[in-house]
Design brief:
There is one protein chain. The chain has 7 helices and 10 strands. It is globular, with a radius of gyration of 17 Å. It has one domain: Nucleoside phosphorylase domain (Rossmann fold, 3-Layer(aba) Sandwich), CATH 3.40.50.1580. A 5-stranded mixed barrel has the order 3-9-8-4-10, surrounded by 4 helices. A two-stranded antiparallel ribbon has the order 5-6. The protein has about 230 residues and is of the alpha/beta class. The structure holds ligand LNDFFVEH.
């Protein structure tokens, strides 16, 4: 296929978007909004940052080797909200791993303070702005989405995370892994979450997964034109 076939300017890579969810139910909720969008692929990469990084990196490498690389990666799914009700759509302006580091007698040290790696990936500001506008997301619902390896289950832990990350709007388990893979391939990243539950004392019966999945479908229906047309300038 040539650049002309895709409608892109000659010599300009056409947009190709990879959306990574944790589980098939999330993948299907996103994909429901994306029929007739051949430039966007949705894959379920597994639960947790390690599975997410491995699955995303595999998809990125496969596309590169096929000569049709992805130009944008999105981590998507349901998540715990810090202060917004189930069904709220949240957009990350920072994707931060909350529990990568070391406990010390003086408290938690992020891995960067140990001299390693990174703890935050920042989606491009113009993409965050365009996604928020397209989905009608309020400014208060744009913020840091934390990545955790253990779902928060107590009020104490929720308060500690909120104190440590005052800009946090949500926690989930994959964003940082997806972002690490995207960064390794030099591809920009975004994260979109729909709230299924509150971050706090564990109450699995109170999770509103159906509401969150429906909100996810709606958000991706509205976001698809932005994802397809957004250019990293
Ligand atoms: O049981 C189902 O039908 C079902 C359908 C879709 C998704 C699920 C999940 O359990 C997804 C797990 C996924 O959700 C994220 N998540 C949601 N709430 C939180 C939270 O409070 N803290 C951290 N992560 C959360 C997370 O990304 C998981 O991978 C079930």
């Amino acid at each position: 296929m040539t650049d002309t076939d895709t409608g892109a300017q000659p010599g300009t890579a056409h947009a190709r978007v990879l959306i990574a969810t944790a589980v098939p139910a999330e993948r299907d909720a996103v994909a429901r909004a994306l029929h007739d969008r051949p430039a966007i692929d949705v894959v379920a990469v597994g639960v947790g940052p390690a599975a997410a990084a491995a699955g995303t990196a595999t998809a990125l490498t496969t596309a590169e080797l096929a000569g049709d690389p992805y130009t944008l990666v999105v981590s998507a799914g349901i998540g715990g909200g810090f202060s917004t009700p189930p069904g709220t759509v949240l957009i990350a302006d920072a994707i931060t791993v909350a529990d990568l580091g070391a406990e010390t007698p003086e408290g938690f040290l992020p891995v960067t303070e140990l001299g390693f790696g990174t703890v935050t990936h920042r989606p491009p500001a113009s993409l965050v702005r365009d996604l928020a506008a397209a989905t009608g997301t309020a400014p208060a619902a744009v913020g840091t989405v934390l990545t955790v390896s253990t779902v928060t289950g107590t009020a104490d832990r929720a308060a500690l995370l909120a104190r440590r990350h005052p800009g946090a709007v949500a926690e989930a388990m994959e964003g940082f892994g997806v972002a690490e893979a995207a960064a390794a391939h030099d591809v920009p990243v975004a994260e979109i979450r729909a709230v299924s539950n509150a971050v706090g004392p564990r109450d699995r019966a109170a999770w509103r997964i159906g509401d969150a999945l429906a909100a996810l479908t709606d958000a991706f229906g509205k976001s698809a034109p932005v994802l397809e047309s957004w250019k990293n300038t």
